[in-house]
Amino acid sequence: MAGYETMGTARGEIFADFRSDTVTRATPEMRQVMASAVVGDDVYAEDPTVNELQDRVATLTGKEAALYLTSATQSNLAAILCHCGRGEEYLSGETYHVFCDEAGGASALGGVVACPIPVDSEGAITAEQIRQAFKVDDPHYPISRLLCLENTVSGSVQSTSRIDELATTAHELGLVTHLDGARLFNAAVASGVEISAFLDHIDSVTLCLSKGLGAPMGAVLAADRATIDRAIRARKMLGGAQRQVGHVAAAGLHALVHHVERLAEDHARAARLASGLDAIERATARAATNMVFVDVPSEHRVPLSAHVAKAGIALGGFRAEGLRIVCHLDIDDAAVDRLIDAFATYLASE
Length: 350
Hints:
By secondary structure, the protein is α/β, with parallel strands linked by helices. It is built from 13 helices and 15 strands.
């Protein structure tokens, strides 16, 4: 897998780690460009590698400007702080990362109220739900200011037409729009379009470099120039201003050039993995871009997980939607076969 036979984690030496696409390690080529990167002080906007990365992302997204941040969580929070004031509100799907998995940062640090909207089985919300959640100008309510969308949602692609409809509806209501595009490149590759195709009506977008693209850290926020100017101040307040950060920005640049088209390989492996697991008696599985969701009867979950771990495979825990298995840069065909065999060996013996 990317030149490595085993990898060490807090759980010991393992053959393959399917917990998330965040566990990837920089490839040898990526390490070389990191070591040789030309750098400067980014707080003074003098790091040429960071500037190149930001310019490239602005071009890819069709936005005026972009800003390099430490993580997608920090990027999303900076965007919300730019778009919303204290006592104002953002609307979001109830399972979206900004609402569920970012420690309530917008509320804790920005005084911004979250309004979660129920999602369907593919993580989608509707234009009518946005209209119903929108608050009229009334002193009893927070001021609705922002719509936060996400793509992909648990691997499920939100189509360009769906994003356009939701964002257009938001603009009709006077809302600003932000897209958590942590895995937007997965959505674009799966749809056969450029990422800009999703962004015609999106005011700001976060792109994560450390998930499917395989960089060790970093995310980029793209928007109009005024929003990015505000985001620079927000990043400073959040402790995200860095100095000679071009060494890791170089990894992001390398990923944008070399690791986008190969996302199709992750999607193909996820589809093959889902097919193999679904063919096993007492297992059901489905694929969504680079993710597989598999379930087994509840009495088998704990012993199956232990059996798979003994085979040198790291998995996350079971969720309501089943066990999430993620294919990524460090997963090859041998790892997929090993996981299918581990499931089959256990379930055949029970």
